Amino acid sequence: MNNNILIIGRVTDEMIKDIQLLELNVILITSEQEVNLVRDRDVLLDLLVFDYTQLDQLMNSSRILLKKYGIQAAFSFSEEALFNTAFIAEFFNLKGNDIDSVRKTQNKYLMRRILANHKEFSLPYKLVKTIDDIGSFVEENGKSVLKPIGAYASKGVIEVNKGENYNNALKYTNCYGSEILIEKYIYGRSFSIDILSLNGSHDILVILERKISEAPYYVTTAYTNDFDLSKETLGLIKDYCFKILNTLNIQQGISHIEIKLENNQPKLIELQMRPGGRMHKIITYVSGEKILPKYIASVLDMPYSFVPVDNKVSVFFFYSNVKGCIISVKGINNILSNKSVVFLTSKMKIGTQINRIQSTKDRLGYFIHCKRNMENQSKKCYKEGLYLLNQLEIEVESI
């Protein structure tokens, strides 16, 4: 058996290096917009750059690569490439992404229909096309959320409530998809759970609390595992997530599940078959575990071990609710000089045009604030990270 695998979609240098801990040869297909994320291209067995969302072209290229190198698996860790990668894996009989799981989870309406047969997962929902559809649903169910059935990264997600301008909300969501789902709003604290599944067996990698931007848009602005939930509640979350995966017959892959705790009962918001945004990095700092090599090794039935590190992590995304042009940024050095800050990336440059945060694409960067041996520092990691974030000053010139 050769050690060649195919990866399709958005990856970074760090992700490639993690995968190469398994001593695998990586063939990468990525887009022109994403190729610069991989600077050390000498470590790749081969690199192709084109629009991988075009399935015909991807099929032809994969066929040639398979003939040239022999490939045992195909993987993707980005929404844009998930379905086509799963299609490639199934068509060429490769290990990797499961097409049925990807199909069900990338179509929010289909997923809700499957789950609606089980009372514990039921939530009022409906496909809507007109403002009258929206109005009647909101009249019956109260505050609700519009979302395109196939979008991701919070694109097109917007809150609607009684007495509001439904027309503007509908136009906004329509920009990201013609088929629109409305769901009853779920109240409560928000959490994300990343799970590794193999042959129907599930293993929780990490549970993090999510901090969300202000309505009407819902974008994660921070993750933290510095939260106060009882063992009983954590057990409820675990059982709930595993039941969702079993109900959807998800046997294999990495699942990113978002829930809210409403009256201390978990309620599903979202599910995707990939690690949540930047989660591969966050999981490493929380558990000491590198998620991508663990997943790939499990699929390929390869030995892989790790030494857990006792970490606690808060992750904060920089953002601004003011539309305009950045004219000054202050406080970055204060964040970087803190010894507990283990990573920082920023798109905040003078002259950059920014918008009010509406999707994850509008976030201006993030830093990871990490503390070890948190038993004696309960609830300090999040507060310390928030203090650092508040030292950041972004001045914009209104447009």
What is this structure's SSE topology?
Layout: E1 4-8, H1 13-19, E2 25-30, E3 46-49, H2 55-69, E4 73-75, H3 79-91, E5 95-96, H4 99-106, H5 108-115, E6 125-128, H6 131-141, E7 144-148, E8 158-160, H7 166-174, E9 180-184, E10 189-198, E11 201-212, E12 220-224, H8 231-247, E13 253-262, E14 265-272, H9 279-287, H10 291-300, E15 311-317, E16 324-330, H11 332-336, E17 341-346, E18 353-354, E19 365-372, H12 380-389, E20 393-398
Parallel strand pairs: 1-2, 1-4, 2-3, 4-5
Antiparallel strand pairs: 6-9, 7-8, 7-9, 10-11, 10-13, 11-12, 12-15, 13-14, 15-19, 16-18, 16-20, 17-19
Helix pairs in contact: 3-4
Structure, explained:
With 399 residues, this protein is α+β, with helices and mostly antiparallel strands. 31% of the residues lie in helices and 30% in strands. The protein contains 12 helices and 20 strands. The chain has helices spanning 13-19, 55-69, 79-91, 99-106, 108-115, 131-141, 166-174, 231-247, 279-287, 291-300, 332-336, 380-389, and strands at residues 4-8, 25-30, 46-49, 73-75, 95-96, 125-128, 144-148, 158-160, 180-184, 189-198, 201-212, 220-224, 253-262, 265-272, 311-317, 324-330, 341-346, 353-354, 365-372, 393-398. A hairpin with a 2-residue loop joins strand 10 (189-198) and strand 11. Helix 3 runs antiparallel to helix 4 (99-106). The chain is globular and about 60 Å long. The mean pLDDT is 89.
